[in-house]
Amino acid sequence: MIILGTEYAGEMKKGIFTVMHYLQPKQYNVLSLHSSANEGPAGDVTLFFGLSGTGKTTLSADPKRKLIGDDEHCWSDTGVFNIEGGCYAKCIDLSAEKEPEIFNAIRFGSVLENVVLDEQSRVVDYSDDFLTENTRCAYPIDYIPNAKIPCLGGHPKNLILLTCDAFGVLPPVSKLTPDQVMFHFLMGYTTKIPGTEDGIVEPQATFSACFGSPFLVLHPQKYATMLAEKMSQHQTNAWLINTGWVGGSAKNAKRCPLKYTRAILDSIHNGELANAEYETFEVFNLSIPTSVPGVPNELLHPRRAWQGTDAEFTTALHSVGKMFNDNLELYKDGASAETIAAAPVVPV
């Protein structure tokens, strides 16, 4: 592998990840995954999938659970293992108050990239984005106090697919069938919002197959099928969690409070949500719990949480459903019938 003109260790990290996306499924029948992973006191493992800005790193860093890894894993016949042996964290606006574990991991043996130092004191100014907003730090995983060493775990009990839906039409949490897991894994959906990138003035849908399209070597359906098979074999529950907007779009509503998302995760980890009562959400055919401890009931169903008119919600819901279906066209040739059947049903 030859890497030219880079100033990021991320190019090496993702280069090896791309190699693993070929070797592991093709030669060893092991599933490579762009995910974080943690483990509870009872040995229960959770995998978190999500694109940038969905909360993958934040939600997997749980003081009540041990961190197996924050970005790259494989799922074999014996369980999950971390590929990296370290972490590669964003540093922009980093502080000891907001992210103490990452802040304290930056010490001798860590590598900082593209940060700005005070010329006299040599102290890093983490708020300075003069060079780039994508400042980074690489450090060994044992610099995180609750890391699990070695970075191994059993078969996952839960899969969490994270999305940040700025259109406000996806539920804060829904339980997925294996077919829906394949579909939403294949989609890798989130939204970019104004202020995150130059030129973004309206919420913009973003899709990245398997939550890591640049690193895929085989057809995305191969990884999605392996994921569904492993879920079925090990009775793994799967959940779609929207960390984005509720009650309306990013233009006129608020993002789902982190305390409610954490309450949802707690209910997943303690088993309450697996035994909850559910109702079906239209178009996407998702199963929404009727109640979650610590979360207001009115937030759980997007249509009931919507602050505009019912017709406005219907228009927004159908519009997002159509975006999914348009993206599915890119993969239809290699997608399974089960995956295609789990797509949104948008009335003409």
UniProtKB/TrEMBL annotation:
It comes from Umbelopsis ramanniana AG. It catalyses: oxaloacetate + ATP = phosphoenolpyruvate + ADP + CO2. GO terms for biological process: gluconeogenesis. It comes from the Eukaryota. Keywords: ATP-binding, Decarboxylase, Gluconeogenesis, Lyase, Nucleotide-binding. SUPFAM superfamilies: PEP carboxykinase N-terminal domain, PEP carboxykinase-like. GO terms for molecular function: ATP binding; phosphoenolpyruvate carboxykinase (ATP) activity. This is Phosphoenolpyruvate carboxykinase (ATP). Signal peptide: none annotated. InterPro entries: PEP_carboxykinase_ATP, PEP_carboxykinase_C, PEP_carboxykinase_N, PEPCK_ATP_CS. Belongs to the phosphoenolpyruvate carboxykinase (ATP) family. Pathway: Carbohydrate biosynthesis; gluconeogenesis. The lineage of its organism: Eukaryota, Fungi, Fungi incertae sedis, Mucoromycota, Mucoromycotina. Its EC number is 4.1.1.49. GO terms for cellular component: cytosol.
